[in-house]
Design goal:
By secondary structure, the chain is of the alpha+beta class. The chain has six helices and 20 strands. Strand 15 and strand 16 form a beta hairpin.
Length: 375
């Protein structure tokens, strides 16, 4: 959705009217087919974590067509090719939150190294300054966004909103987990002022006018709807809605030893062919939490890992184009075969900072494990 690297194979889906995404199909020597949804624009996207020293963390209230509801999430958006990453972050922050601030890049992460191999640069914004004048919005977005509020939340409440499922946006959870993993955000980062909780969601939401199936894979595991919709400004346009595996969440699990070592496994990136550090991941067998936990336990058994499986949360991969979810699990008191390498938290932090570790799922599990005192 927001930037990627991909091979030169011809796309199986490319629609001149759909200026946002293309779909590629790859088959390995074993005959397994994988699909990649990549943006037409190869510039990395940006996501901004605003931290105010008196008020907490700032979130926008955004109506998401793919979830059919208002979501609390961080400001984020596309990168423009003729701007730096910092300039792109500053532009999105100003447009969505009417704020400026000192931008510090935390890391670049892959949204999903498999099907959605987009790169996003995550920023933390501090020393925030609010802008009163009217903001001119860009004209290259996928319709007018329905943002009804920008509001600050205490960090402890933010963690609870992620844990309870009030916040499901994957970019938001990855940004928070990244900041926690790098020691930039903790429960001690509490506001000195009481936040104001008063939001009136606008009735101007995105309305579906016509459902249009624009592409379906041969195995029916991926369906792309390019629906005709009406945006909040009353203009008509199109919106992408990708359904994967009949909307059953994928499962990600990371083993952690009794002494807090994180067990990762070298695996081939299906997009670039490079060997990268990643989690255990599999296609879910059902939508319920017991079914997802069963998949996590099966993954551990398949790769010779023992441990006590616990659920962390379930997030949406990219609610801008798909309602697809990924469920995160951790296996505590784990022991594994020689296929895995144990890393301390300090080593993982350095791998993230240096760009060696870019897997967004790993960062999510590590950060959430710190929040829940599992690391």
């Amino acid at each position: 959705y927001m930037g990627s690297e991909h091979s030169m194979s011809a796309p199986v889906y490319e629609n001149p009217a759909n200026k946002w995404i293309k779909i590629f199909s790859d088959s390995n020597d074993e005959g397994t087919t994988t699909y990649r949804v990549v943006p037409a624009n190869d510039v990395p996207g940006v996501c901004i974590l605003p931290v105010h020293h008196h008020r907490g963390v700032g979130l926008v209230r955004n109506y998401r067509y793919n979830t059919g509801r208002w979501e609390w999430e961080l400001p984020r958006g596309f990168g423009k090719p003729n701007a730096t990453e910092t300039e792109n972050a500053a532009r999105e922050f100003l447009e969505e939150a009417r704020c400026t601030g000192d931008m510090q890049a935390m890391a670049t992460l892959l949204t999903d190294s498999s099907m959605f191999p987009s790169k996003v640069v995550y920023f933390i914004a501090q020393n925030l300054r609010f802008v009163d004048e009217e903001i001119e919005h860009g004209d290259d977005s996928e319709g007018e966004e329905a943002i009804s509020a920008f509001q600050f939340f205490p960090v402890t409440l933010l963690f609870e909103m992620i844990q309870s499922g009030i916040i499901t946006d994957g970019f938001t959870v990855r940004a928070v987990a990244l900041a926690v993993s790098l020691g930039l955000l903790s429960r001690e980062t509490e506001p000195l002022e009481d936040p104001v909780f008063s939001v009136t969601d606008s009735d101007q939401i995105v309305h579906k006018l016509e459902e249009i199936l624009d592409y379906e894979s041969a195995d029916s595991q991926l369906k792309l709807y390019f629906d005709r919709v009406r945006f909040p400004n009353e203009k008509e346009g199109r919106y992408n809605r990708i359904i994967i595996n009949n909307d059953i969440p994928d499962v990600v699990v990371i083993p952690i030893t009794s002494d807090g070592q994180i067990l990762l496994r070298k695996q081939q990136n299906p997009i670039t062919g490079d060997a990268v550090w990643g989690p255990l991941r599999g296609r879910g067998s059902g939508a319920t939490k017991p079914e997802q936990q069963s998949t996590a336990e099966e993954l551990l058994e398949k790769f010779g890992v023992t441990g006590e499986v616990s659920s962390l949360n379930s997030v949406r991969v990219d609610s801008g184009i798909t309602p697809a979810r990924v469920s995160h699990f951790v296996a505590r008191n784990a022991a594994a075969s020689e296929d895995f390498t144990a890393f301390g938290l300090a080593e993982v932090q350095e791998m993230i900072r240096s760009g060696i570790l870019q897997d967004g799922f790993v960062v999510c599990v590590v950060g959430l494990s710190i929040v829940h005192s599992l690391l």
